[in-house]
Amino acid sequence: MLAAEDPLHVNSDRNKILNYFDYFFTTVFTVEITLKAVAYGLILHKGSFCRSYFNLLDVLVVSVSLISFAFGNETFSVVKILRVLRVLRPLRAINRAKGLKQVIQCIFVAVKTIGNILLVTFLLNFMFAVIGVQLLKGKFYRCNDESKMTEDECRGQYVVYQGSETGMKITIEDRIWENNEFNFDDVAKAMLSLCTVSTFEGWPKLLYVAIDSHAENVGPIYNHNPLVAIYFIVYIIIIAFFMVNIFVGFVIVTFQSEGEQEFKNCELDKNQ
């Protein structure tokens, strides 16, 4: 219903009708939770209502709706956030669909057991970041006037010619000494730059900047250091291919092992 609301006209007829539906379903969900808490008990004994994480999720979703209704049309930012949190309502379906519940349980089991893989991946990223800092620190600076190679030379203004000989446009721009958006000046920035490489999103641009890098605080020279490409290729092979595939494979194995638990007390095997 939140998706069907008119965000520009708060007091429109459509929003008023949707609010009535909101009141109705919130009331039904509140009664349902109350009855389940009475039937199963609240928290003291095994199998009680609040000992299930999925039941607590239901309580959270319904509580957000009740609190937002209690404040009415108040304009507090906290209330607005609570109203937005009503998008959590579809998550209540997890508690009613056995397949969805099993998927969520498998995800939690996988998260608990992949700590070593995440730690190794982080250490490898840290190692490559340290190497990158030693190789490329301070080498991604450049002047927007490509004829100037140092910060001392990159001062004043320069003339820019644009267009063809018949329609030449001449502009005067200030020289600016700037660093690349992604660089290896320290370990933190290096790890951020390597994250862009691991996602394969625009990493060739970073590779070309590294290949053209010359020296610290000196502008680039075209194709000056092509061997630095080995650094990026090795990183992609180890992190983007090897470690990511290990992570995905481990999650798949976890799903399979959790699925086999369904057949543990059954006469049929998993293939049947």
Explain this structure:
The chain crosses the membrane at residues 20-39, 59-82, 103-131, 228-255. Its main location: membrane. It is found in: Membrane. One of its GO terms (molecular function) is high voltage-gated calcium channel activity. The structure is a single chain. The protein is mainly α. It folds into 3 domains: 2-96, Up-down Bundle (Four Helix Bundle (Hemerythrin (Met), subunit A)), CATH 1.20.120; 97-140 and 183-271, Helix Hairpins (Orthogonal Bundle), CATH 1.10.287; 141-179, no CATH class. It contains 8 helices and 4 strands; from the N terminus they run H-H-H-H-H-E-E-E-E-H-H-H. It has helices at residues 13-40, 53-71, 77-84, 98-113, 115-136, 187-198, 203-212, 229-260; strands at residues 141-143, 157-162, 169-174, 177-179. A two-stranded antiparallel ribbon has the order 1-4. A two-stranded antiparallel ribbon has the order 2-3. Helix 4 (98-113) packs across helix 8. The mean pLDDT is 79.
